[in-house]
């Protein structure tokens, strides 16, 4: 009896186990001779990690059946792809299989083909296999070769998924568009399409019926879409788009989107009503939340204010206005736009006393650049760009955008939007008389200022002359008078700088504690185990850095200002002011600060992989950072720097970019750190001078090391050095005693010999992408040129790094390190924080002169 019981129990357990096996291993593939049937026993194909499923469904209240792909293991199984969108099956008799010709086919109850992956190839096709992948892609491949015959990602419906590659072919205008559903419950093709408009600089466009434009993203500048001002902020999920290069054999390039966190589910969908929604799955709320939608505001609607109109949500008299110098064509009706008030020089009739001055340009700042349908664009420089515009009477505006180059509008300006910040500058062509009006008043002001300044200068000059005379009388020596003039200008500059106006202004705006969490001293002491030595990670610009673990388990890095000496206070302030305002995935993130008593500390996210020098200069680790990773790190640093120079609300020169200031997170993403030396620049300021040159030997540009002049181009120089170090795995200074004098000198030597390849770190040379490596070295040679003007800006650098098609200018020989090395060496003294300081006179605090 007991025996019998035991047997039944074990049998039922066994069958239960069998049942479990059967139901838990859901298929993710379909082969020839297999069928995926609709009906009561319908079991969809499930991707290996259950992220997506493929099967039959009915949308909403509809009873029609469609073959589609939807999300697997979340509550809201949104549909992302439909096969037979225009051809529904009216009952549950549908079957998916692979035909004898090797195509995926969807048959109805009458064995009639409803949909097919229609591929005419019929050789060697009896081993084809269809599989649903965790990306949401349904692929038909040849089982033995893995060759992809067909994939749903190449035939999207209304949804763009991460990892999807949208093909753009500038030559054919081909742009795999997404087409909306007809209604919420009808997947058949609706009124709206979304795609990449490849004419000119590519942009995303949402089209309505008859291909009328509804919205556009603004031109792609190789890093962001210029018409989405917040795109470079880390906080939203838009960062991660990329245009592939080089073009493949058909001339196509691909737009891809790689989210910063692959575990976040994201989808971009064109709704039936013409809204494009960007959605993210929120696991807490168990629903899709919208993080952006387009068009978002009234001004995002395409051409809202007509040609030559500007749409500004904050406009004083309604959202529409005309560009200055333009007037409304028909008062009260913006759809007709604006027209120029005064004819351009080339339009004026000379025989009736036209003539007049050359046309001039009015600059609109922070705008979404007008649409650009029949573009003329090139990599000419800004001055040349302007001349080209003046040459053609139909040119109405031009601009020069890093990453795109010169753009000239020989057409009406359409869809300009005014942003509060971000955006681009646009130079509008106007008759000189339109600009003159404004200039007159300016001239008066300038004259007054000049006269006043003259009086003051004259006073100072005579004072100095008097003192000089007295001195001369005393010493009896003859000195060149021009020396006096130079001295005077210097002393004048230093006094204005010492008034501290620059610093105070920055401070006044800055440390907004509501933006920046404050940690208590006790929490930090606890986290770092009372700053114990084992927790010391290293030394930053102004003091030791400790690792810590907060109560909730979050790992942090704490930078502690080495208190009493007072040294480093400026750098500390500088860092807190700057970095609190910066947000980018390639900049280290400040979590908060702590001020209590004597203690001043900054709290950062902890970077488990330390800094880049830890890897690339360490023989045992060099091989770990292969070429692919090094290139990704290079790109990351370039993006971070571009953000500092251009895309953030402030314009920032880092001034101390070096390998040890590039930190690496757990995924080896590079993050620029240490803003103690960084400087904010005013909008129009291009160059500044500093009395104290602070930086690190080997990374300093000639003009900075020699004259204390710094600009974005001095960072570009440092970036060039960094590039060479990352590629070669050698420190710039490590070759100082060699015949080439430095890594730069050695790189130049190899570059001129056509042997640049030999520069690549031998540990990774065999496996590196040679084309990419050579391009990087070429870009580095452009960055380390002696003349700041000849160095590219970071936007151009990024463009050159990422696009195989850009033709790179020939680099000039960098002579600075090899020839003048000794002359600056003698001026340097090593301070405690491994930074070399050179003082050009007795004043040692760092000040920014001129504005
Ligand atoms: C459809 O084809 C299958 C196999 O080819 C066959 O068994 C079935 O009877 C056919 N159905 C109809 C309605 O023709
Ligand atoms: C759009 O196309 C339809 C049919 O193709 C046509 O009837 C209609 O007039 C067009 N509308 C516009 C605004 O061009
Ligand atoms: C950009 O971001 C800022 C702050 O995050 C916000 O105030 C502003 O409205 C955003 N601008 C646009 C156009 O979304
Ligand atoms: C699509 O266009 C048709 C024809 O103009 C219109 O009747 C329909 O309402 C539109 N559908 C949507 C969702 O806008
Ligand atoms: C389109 O539909 C979505 C969701 O139903 C809604 O949020 C959005 O405002 C609608 N857009 C328009 C232009 O009607
Ligand atoms: C999900 O939504 C909740 C409530 O709005 C929010 O607090 C949380 O941050 C969201 N989660 C993510 C991952 O965005
Ligand atoms: C505005 O101008 C457009 C185009 O000329 C015209 O179709 C429309 O009827 C006008 N609207 C009004 C309100 O006058
Ligand atoms: C210029 O003005 C003269 C005199 O009014 C006229 O005869 C001539 O046609 C005009 N030329 C053009 C190009 O408009
Ligand atoms: C001026 O622009 C027009 C319009 O794009 C173009 O057709 C013409 O060739 C240009 N002329 C010159 C001299 O470039």
Describe this protein's structure.
With 851 residues, the chain is of the alpha+beta class. It has five domains: 17-154, Bulb-type lectin domain (Agglutinin, subunit A); 168-296, no CATH class; 303-439, no CATH class; 482-606, 2-Layer Sandwich (Phosphorylase Kinase, domain 1), CATH 3.30.200; 609-851, Transferase(Phosphotransferase) domain 1 (Transferase(Phosphotransferase), domain 1, Orthogonal Bundle). The protein is built from 17 helices and 49 strands. The strands form 13 sheets. It has an eight-stranded mixed sheet. Strands 35-36-37-39-38 form a five-stranded antiparallel sheet, with helices on both faces. A four-stranded antiparallel sheet has the order 1-10-11-12, with no helix packed on it. A hairpin with a 2-residue loop joins strand 16 and strand 17. Mean pLDDT is 77; it is low at 1-24, 468-514 and 818-851. Residues 349, 351-352 line the site of one 2-acetamido-2-deoxy-beta-D-glucopyranose. One of its GO terms (biological process) is recognition of pollen.
Keywords:
851 residues; alpha+beta; Agglutinin, subunit A; 5 domains; eight-stranded mixed β-sheet; five-stranded antiparallel β-sheet; disordered N terminus; disordered C terminus; binds 2-acetamido-2-deoxy-beta-D-glucopyranose; membrane; lectin; Ser-Thr/Tyr_kinase_cat_dom; receptor; nucleotide-binding
């Amino acid at each position: 009896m007991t025996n019998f019981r035991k047997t039944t129990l074990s049998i039922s357990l066994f069958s239960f186990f069998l049942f479990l096996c059967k139901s838990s291993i859901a298929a993710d593939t379909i082969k020839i001779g297999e069928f995926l049937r609709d009906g009561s026993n319908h079991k969809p194909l499930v991707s290996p990690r259950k992220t997506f499923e493929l099967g039959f469904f009915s949308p909403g209240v509809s009873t029609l059946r469609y073959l589609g792909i939807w999300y697997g293991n979340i509550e809201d199984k949104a549909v992302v792809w439909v096969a037979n969108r225009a051809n529904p099956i009216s009952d549950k008799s549908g079957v998916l299989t692979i035909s004898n010709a090797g195509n995926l086919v969807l048959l109805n109850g009458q064995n009639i083909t409803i949909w097919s992956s229609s591929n005419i190839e019929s050789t060697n096709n009896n081993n084809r296999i269809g599989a649903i992948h965790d990306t949401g892609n349904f692929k038909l491949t040849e089982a033995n070769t893995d060759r992809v015959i067909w994939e749903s990602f190449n035939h999207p419906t209304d949804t763009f998924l991460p990892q999807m590659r949208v093909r753009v072919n500038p030559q054919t205008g081909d742009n795999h568009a997404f087409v909306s559903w007809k209604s919420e419950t009808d997947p058949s093709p609706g009124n709206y399409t979304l795609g990449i408009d490849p004419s000119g600089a590519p942009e995303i466009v949402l089209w309505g019926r008859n291909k009328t434009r509804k919205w556009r993203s603004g031109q792609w500048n190789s890093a962001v879409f210029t018409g989405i001002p917040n795109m470079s902020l880390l906080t939203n999920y838009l960062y991660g788009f990329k245009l592939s290069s080089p073009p493949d054999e058909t001339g196509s390039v691909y737009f891809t989107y790689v989210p910063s966190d692959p575990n976040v589910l994201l989808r971009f969908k064109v709704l039936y009503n013409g809204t494009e929604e960007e959605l993210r799955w929120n696991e807490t709320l168990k629903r899709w939340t919208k993080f952006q939608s387009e068009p978002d505001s009234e001004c995002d609607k395409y051409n809202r204010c007509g040609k030559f109109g500007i749409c500004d949500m904050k406009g004083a008299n309604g959202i529409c206005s005309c560009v200055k110098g333009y007037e409304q064509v028909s008062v009260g009706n913006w759809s007709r736009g604006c027209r120029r008030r005064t004819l351009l020089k080339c339009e004026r009739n000379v025989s009736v006393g036209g003539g007049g001055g050359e046309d001039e340009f009015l600059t609109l700042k922070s705008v979404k650049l007008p649409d650009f349908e029949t573009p003329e664009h090139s990599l000419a420089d800004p001055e040349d760009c302007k001349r080209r515009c003046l040459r053609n009477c139909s040119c109405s505006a031009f601009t020069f955008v890093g990453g795109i180059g010169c753009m000239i509008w020989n057409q009406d300006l359409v869809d300009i939007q005014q942003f509060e910040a971000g955006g681009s500058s646009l130079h509008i062509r106007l008759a000189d008389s339109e600009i003159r009006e404004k200039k007159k008043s300016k001239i008066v002001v300038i004259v007054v200022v000049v006269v006043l300044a003259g009086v003051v200068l004259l006073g100072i000059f005579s004072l100095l002359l008097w003192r000089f005379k007295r001195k001369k009388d005393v010493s009896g020596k003859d000195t060149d008078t021009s020396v006096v003039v130079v001295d005077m200008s210097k002393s004048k500059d230093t006094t204005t700088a010492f008034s501290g106006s620059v610093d105070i202004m920055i401070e006044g705006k800055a440390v907004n504690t509501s933006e920046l969490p404050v940690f208590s001293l006790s929490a930090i002491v606890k986290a770092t185990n009372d700053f114990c030595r084992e927790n010391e990670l290293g030394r930053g610009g102004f003091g030791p850095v400790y690792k810590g673990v907060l109560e909730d388990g979050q790992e942090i890095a704490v930078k502690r200002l080495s208190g009493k000496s007072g040294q480093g206070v400026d750098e500390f302030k500088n860092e807190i002011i700057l970095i609190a305002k910066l947000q980018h995935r390639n900049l280290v993130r400040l979590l908060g600060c702590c001020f209590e008593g004597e203690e001043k500390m900054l709290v950062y996210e902890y970077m488990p992989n330390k800094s880049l020098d830890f890897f690339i200069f360490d023989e045992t680790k060099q091989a770990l950072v292969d070429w692919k990773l090094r290139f990704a790190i290079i790109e990351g640093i370039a993006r971070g720097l571009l953000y500092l120079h251009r895309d953030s609300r402030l314009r920032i020169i880092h001034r101390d970019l070096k390998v040890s200031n590039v930190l690496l997170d757990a995924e080896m993403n590079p993050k620029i750190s240490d803003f103690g030396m960084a400087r904010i620049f005013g909008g129009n300021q291009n160059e500044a001078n500093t009395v104290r040159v602070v930086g690190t030997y080997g990374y300093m540009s000639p003009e900075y090391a020699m004259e204390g002049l710094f600009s974005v181009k001095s960072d570009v120089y440092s970036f060039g050095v960094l590039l060479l170090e990352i590629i070669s795995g050698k420190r710039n200074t490590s070759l100082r005693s060699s015949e080439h004098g430095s890594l730069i000198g050695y790189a130049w030597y190899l570059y001129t010999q056509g042997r640049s390849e030999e520069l690549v770190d031998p540990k990774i040379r065999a496996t590196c992408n040679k084309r990419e490596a050579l391009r990087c070295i070429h870009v580095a040679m452009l960055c380390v040129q002696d003349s700041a003007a000849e160095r590219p800006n970071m936007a151009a650098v990024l463009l050159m790094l990422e696009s195989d098609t850009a033709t790179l200018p020939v680099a000039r020989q960098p002579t600075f390190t090899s020839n003048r090395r000794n002359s600056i060496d003698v001026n340097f003294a090593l301070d405690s924080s491994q930074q070399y300081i050179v003082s050009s006179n007795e004043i040692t605090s760092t000040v920014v002169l001129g504005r």
